[in-house]
Specification:
The protein is an alpha+beta fold and 333 residues long. The protein has three domains: 4-65, Uridine Diphospho-n-acetylenolpyruvylglucosamine Reductase, domain 2; 70-221, Uridine Diphospho-n-acetylenolpyruvylglucosamine Reductase, domain 3, CATH 3.30.465.10; 229-332, Uridine Diphospho-n-acetylenolpyruvylglucosamine Reductase, domain 1 (Alpha-Beta Complex), CATH 3.90.78. 24% of the residues lie in helices and 28% in strands. The protein has helices spanning 30-39, 90-99, 152-155, 193-198, 207-221, 242-251, 269-275, 304-322, and strands at 4-8, 20-27, 43-46, 52-53, 58-65, 70-74, 79-85, 124-125, 128-129, 134-141, 147-151, 172-182, 229-233, 239-241, 258-261, 264-266, 282-283, 286-288, 295-298, 331-332. A five-stranded antiparallel beta sheet has the order 6-7-12-10-11. Strands 1-2-5-3 form a four-stranded mixed beta sheet. Strands 13-19-18-17 form a four-stranded antiparallel beta sheet, covered by helices on one side. The relative contact order is 0.13. It binds uridine-diphosphate-2(N-acetylglucosaminyl) butyric acid. Uridine-diphosphate-2(N-acetylglucosaminyl) butyric acid binds at residues 125-126, 194, 222, 232-233, 236-237, 256, 268, 270-271, 274, 279, 292-294, 329. Uridine-diphosphate-2(N-acetylglucosaminyl) butyric acid binds next to β13 and α7.
């Protein structure tokens, strides 16, 4: 087993934070992974590195999951079960599904990260979440090395949430994910405002057209991690009770919002942050993106701690201005 020492993680996290792993190993098959965890229990799993902020060197053994492969189980009806290995790049996987005319993931185009980490935070965009097409996943229990299948119910998906962020955090390593997709008769979601505007002229857009629209919208708003380090939305959109919302709306009648339930209203964190004057502001090597205030960026050689300090400053300002607690969405390591 080839364990490397003192490896820079700059290329392994989309924030581009230059910290390092004391010990690092790349895994190319589930068999290799089983072998490693038979002797190492205190491990740090690294997939696409797209949802983390590294604030210090990593003492644990860093396992970089690089397993590849896609298996199709065609039922000959309108549905097809597609299983992808955890190390497959998410966006490449989505494009591959579209090239096969398999529908369901098109709204999730261009999300950074890998297939194996996508269920952990139930990735979502433009009216669709992974849970909508998720069928099951396979994972290894670190303690026992045993394989376990998780059904959709067992994953306990919520808004940017799952069992793997809560009671099973750090206990399992996801090795593959199976999606139930459509073959011909696609059940597309184009109700999200920005997509609707983009596809205005199209009566029944194809999944490729929807994917192209999502890619264009994301490129116009979100920074490309290859050009400027970032981790997508840094905070979750807060859900507040309807009384608090009513008070807020009296003061800010234009406040955008989505009704979650009778007593729960979701407010865009990007809007709150913009109101506080942070949008487009730079603080040394870090800052708030100028087109989407929900995204914190690494302009050049920022440390994780600098980004984290800015995040805390934003949280405090939102608390004093709106009395709302902003929850950080990325994992702070
Ligand atoms: N807004 C502002 N200022 C900003 C940003 C947004 O006023 O700087 C307002 C917009 O005008 C709009 C509302 O906030 O009225 C919502 O904005 P947007 O459609 O851009 O979506 P979001 O709620 O800010 C969420 C996801 C994104 C996802 C988009 C599209 C979260 C935490 N973020 O952002 O996910 O792409 O919806 O579905 O739920 C990610 O998780 O990394 C991510 C990018």
């Amino acid at each position: 087993m080839n364990i490397l020492h003192n490896i820079s993680l700059k290329e392994y996290n989309t924030f581009g934070i230059n910290t390092y792993a004391k010990r690092f190993i790349e895994i190319n098959s589930t068999e290799e992974l089983k072998q490693v965890i038979s002797s190492e229990k205190d491990v740090f799993i690294l997939g696409g590195g797209s949802n983390m902020l590294l604030t210090s060197a990593i003492e644990k053994l860093v396992i970089h999951i690089n397993t590849k492969g896609i298996i199709v189980n065609d039922t000959k009806k309108n549905e097809v079960y597609v299983t992808a290995e955890a190390g497959e790049n998410w966006h490449e996987f989505v494009l591959w599904c579209i090239s096969q005319n398999y529908g369901g993931l098109e709204n999730l185009s261009l999300i950074p990260g890998n297939v194996g980490t996508s269920p952990i935070q139930n990735i979502g965009a433009y009216g669709v979440e992974i849970k909508d097409t998720f069928f099951q996943l396979e994972a290894l229990e670190i303690e026992t090395g045993k394989t376990k299948i998780f059904t959709k119910d067992e994953c306990k998906f919520g808004y940017r949430n799952s069992v793997f962020k809560n009671e099973l955090k750090g206990k399992y390593i996801i090795t593959s994910v199976t999606f139930k997709l459509t073959k011909n008769n696609h059940n597309t979601t184009i109700s999200y405002g920005a997509i609707q505007q983009f596809l205005e002229s199209k009566n029944k857009p194809t999944i490729k057209e929807i994917s192209d629209a999502v890619i264009a919208i994301r490129q116009s708003k979100l920074p490309d991690p290859k050009e400027i380090g970032n981790s997508g939305s840094f905070f979750k959109n807060p859900v507040i009770n309807s009384n608090s919302f009513k008070k807020l709306q009296e003061k800010y009648p234009e406040i955008p919002h989505y009704i979650v339930s009778e007593n729960e209203i979701k407010v865009p964190a990007g809007w709150l942050i913009e109101q506080c004057g942070f949008k487009g502001k730079r603080f040394g090597n870090t800052g708030v993106h100028n087109k989407q205030a929900l995204v914190l960026v690494n302009y050049n050689n920022a440390t994780g701690q600098e980004v984290y300090n800015l995040a805390q400053k934003i949280q405090q300002t939102i608390k004093t201005t709106f009395n709302i607690d902003l929850e950080i969405e990325v994992n702070i390591i």
